UniProtKB/TrEMBL annotation:
The chain crosses the membrane at residues 28-47, 295-316. One of its GO terms (molecular function) is oxidoreductase activity. The keyword Transferase does not apply. GO terms for cellular component: membrane. Belongs to the short-chain dehydrogenases/reductases (SDR) family. PANTHER family: DEHYDROGENASE/REDUCTASE SDR FAMILY MEMBER 7B, DEHYDROGENASE_REDUCTASE SDR FAMILY MEMBER 7B. It comes from Trichonephila clavata. This is Dehydrogenase/reductase SDR family protein 7-like.
């Protein structure tokens, strides 16, 4: 019979042996590659869980002097709550004094403390007054332990239709303002060889997207400045951290400026469905206690986009071109 003929049963056995051998070697190679990464991964997670411990974190931050710009609303207000709750001495800075007083009252009502927040009226556009404002902040407690450069403004518009004055306003607020304040505070930190500087940038400081030119440019500049500062301060005990959040549920898009300088006044869907500002602030507190040098707070897709921009630029620009066409088509439909 055919099944009794020599060699008829060996053919499937050969494939089975080859398949088993491939699985064996794949597991062996994968295991060999993964094993060296297991220990660092465990150490990293233990390290992070240590700084997530609120008791340790609050002990580290207790009585530290924290200056927060843009503290009157949005993420700045959430950061004020997080730092005050951790026991720090918070200096609330922004343009609107009445809004800052409201935040101060809210902080003391929710978290009564011996450390009463201090209000400092400051306009990031007024660069000439920045040394004077920095001195005011330093005179309150004699030093600044943590500087949080959070204040800023967003933008929506097409490059071809945007006045140069709008580009200048966004760049001065988001870049030159934080730079001027940092330069004014830095000498006092260098004098005592201690301090922590936080720059709240954006995922758009790493990748540019259509119709955000002025905003993205200012955040790219911010990223570059604080990356450079980080390197130059490497020999000191002053730490620098650039935080790059994705979309956060704030009024940033409502208060954004358009190409002609008017207020955008629209809550973007992406912003409305973004991260909770309290959650973002909590992560920033952890990063501060852990003295991290960078923090990207975004979903998987923005992180993949950052990676694609680096390793496969043509694909990234194809994706952004498609995005621009969709937005343009959508705006054309709305205007009809």
């Amino acid at each position: 019979m055919l099944k009794d003929e020599p060699g008829t049963e060996e053919v499937p056995n050969v494939f089975q042996i080859m398949y088993s051998s491939m699985i064996h070697w794949t597991r062996l190679i994968a295991g060999g590659l993964a094993l060296p990464l297991v220990f660092p991964w465990l150490v990293y997670n233990l390290y992070r869980s240590h700084f997530k411990n609120k008791i340790f974190r609050n002990r580290f931050l207790e009585d530290k002097v924290v200056l927060i710009t843009g503290a009157s609303s949005g993420l700045g207000e959430a950061l004020a709550h997080a730092f005050h709750k951790a026991g720090t001495r918070v200096i609330l800075a922004a343009r609107r004094t009445d809004a800052l007083e409201k935040v101060k009252k809210d902080l003391m009502e929710k978290y009564p403390s011996k450390n009463v927040p201090v209000v400092l009226t400051m306009d990031l556009l007024d660069l000439k007054k920045m040394p004077e404002k920095a001195k005011e902040a330093l005179d309150i407690y004699g030093h600044i332990d943590i500087l949080v450069n959070n204040g800023g403004i967003s933008y929506r518009g097409e490059i071809a239709d945007t006045d140069l004055d709008v580009d200048l306003r966004v760049m001065f607020t988001n870049y030159f303002g934080p730079v001027a304040l940092t330069k004014a505070i830095l000498p006092s930190m260098l004098e005592i060889n201690s301090g922590f500087i936080l720059a709240i940038s954006s995922v758009q400081g790493k990748i540019a997207i259509p119709y955000r030119s002025a905003y993205s440019s200012s955040k790219h500049a911010l990223q570059a400045f604080f990356d450079t500062l980080k390197s130059e301060l490497n020999h000191t005990n002053i730490h620098v951290c650039v935080v790059s959040p994705g979309y956060v549920q704030t009024n940033l898009s409502l208060n954004a400026v358009t190409g002609d300088g008017k207020q955008y006044g629209v809550m973007d869907q992406a912003t409305a469905s973004g991260m909770n500002p309290d959650e973002v602030a909590e992560n920033i507190i952890i990063a501060t206690a852990a003295k991290r040098s960078e923090l990207v707070l975004a979903g998987l897709l923005p992180k993949i986009a950052i990676w694609i921009r680096v390793v496969c630029p043509w694909l990234y620009f194809y994706m952004m071109g498609s995005r621009a066409r969709r937005i343009r088509a959508s705006n054309a439909i709305k205007q009809e």
